[in-house]
Amino acid sequence: MQSRQNLADFPVPGRAVSHRLAYPRAPHPACPGRPSPEILRPMSTDLASAAVSTMNLRALKLRPGMSLQIQRPVAGAAKEEMQFLAAIDGKGVMAGAHAGSPPLASLRPGDEYVVSGFTGQYDFNFPSRVLQIFEEPFPYALLAYPPQVEVRMVRRSLRMKTSVPAKVSLPGGSSSIAATMIDVSPAGAMIKAPTSVGAVNDEVNLSFSVDVDGNPMSLVLLASICHTNRGDDGMNIGLLFKNASPNDKLALHYLGQTAGA
Length: 261
What we know:
By secondary structure, this protein is mostly beta strands. The chain has 2 domains: 7-153, Roll (Pnp Oxidase, Chain A); 160-259, Beta Barrel (Thrombin, subunit H). Helix content is 5%, strand content 46%. It has one helix at residues 246-259; strands spanning 27-28, 31-35, 52-55, 67-71, 79-88, 92-97, 112-118, 122-134, 140-143, 149-153, 160-169, 177-184, 188-193, 203-212, 215-231, 234-241. The strands form 3 sheets. It has a 6-stranded antiparallel beta barrel with strand order 4-5-6-9-8-7. It has a 6-stranded antiparallel barrel with strand order 11-12-13-16-15-14. A hairpin with a 2-residue loop joins β15 and β16. The chain is elongated.
């Protein structure tokens, strides 16, 4: 390990790294907004397609603790889980190990990596290299600050974490399944249910109540199932709202804003 140094002493990295992320980006055949299984992490279903563009790292507004993946730009290289700590414009990106992940001993100054992550709205990646490994005041790696970051918007709006009781039923059905809405945006939601509620592309009704500035509202929204994943305590089901009215969208926006407050 190297001794601690002042970050301001590091020059702006001058050597460009030409490696680009080569992961496939084809949409999932069963749901246009869902990426193919080869993608490293699940994408949202709010957009049927999204163009790849570039932006400054600061514009992504990464928050401390956000998950990152780093991978050597060679075939068959293993992915390593890290977490974003901070970034200093033009100087470097500070990344630490996740709890339960291997320590930083495998990283060496000069090693080149592709860094990727998901902000909740943007899928992003950028090539970088390890500038330095620090032990104090806590273990972290300083990675080269990228001139630009490759991004793809995979949600029209940022989903906000919430916990709202809901019911799911088939259109025209007389029975329903109790569920919990665990994140929401005006375009879609993620629910947790004890069992599957249908197959990908099936339509369901999602009903729940929203308190809008002290006024209770009961919503029943038509949605299509875009993906399902079995978790430790049930099924996580991604929904894309269909034909939501302007009033429904306003209520969803209010719910998202109050959940994120």
